[in-house]
């Protein structure tokens, strides 16, 4: 059983991105080692087709975070 995913966001300004995810998106987290934050994600799913709306949020550190709103039945 797969019960999680590990996602790495590459950033030119990791502190700004962590602050955005914590303060704006309000994701809870744990600090596992000297500022290495592990954020709790909302429920998610994996699929091969784009049956929904997709957009990207520009992060303060220069990266982009994909955001998907499904328009199909959810499991």
Characterize the structure shown.
It is a single chain. It contains 1 helix and 4 strands. It has 75 residues and is α+β, with helices and mostly antiparallel strands. It has one domain (14-70). The strands form 2 sheets. It has a two-stranded antiparallel sheet with strand order 1-2. A hairpin with a 2-residue loop joins strand 1 (29-33) and strand 2 (36-39). The two termini are 16 Å apart.
Write the layout of secondary structure elements.
Blueprint: H1 14-24, E1 29-33, E2 36-39, E3 52-58, E4 64-70
* Largest sheet strand order: 1-2
Count of discrete structural domains: 1
Compute the separation of the termini in Å: 16 Å
What is the helix content? 10-25%
- Sheet with the most strands, sense and barrel status: 2 strands, antiparallel
Shape: globular
The overall strand count is: 4
What's the oligomerization state?
Answer: single chain
Question: What's a quick, concise take on this entry?
Answer:
By secondary structure, this protein is an alpha+beta fold. It has one domain (14-70). It is 15% helix and 31% strand.
């Amino acid at each position: 059983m797969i019960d999680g995913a590990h996602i790495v966001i590459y950033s030119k300004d990791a502190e700004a991105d962590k602050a955005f995810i914590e303060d704006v998106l309000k994701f809870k987290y744990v600090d596992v080692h000297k500022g290495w934050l592990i954020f709790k994600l909302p429920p998610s799913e994996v699929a091969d087709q784009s049956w929904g709306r997709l957009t990207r949020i520009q992060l303060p550190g220069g990266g982009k975070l994909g955001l998907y709103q499904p328009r199909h039945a959810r499991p």
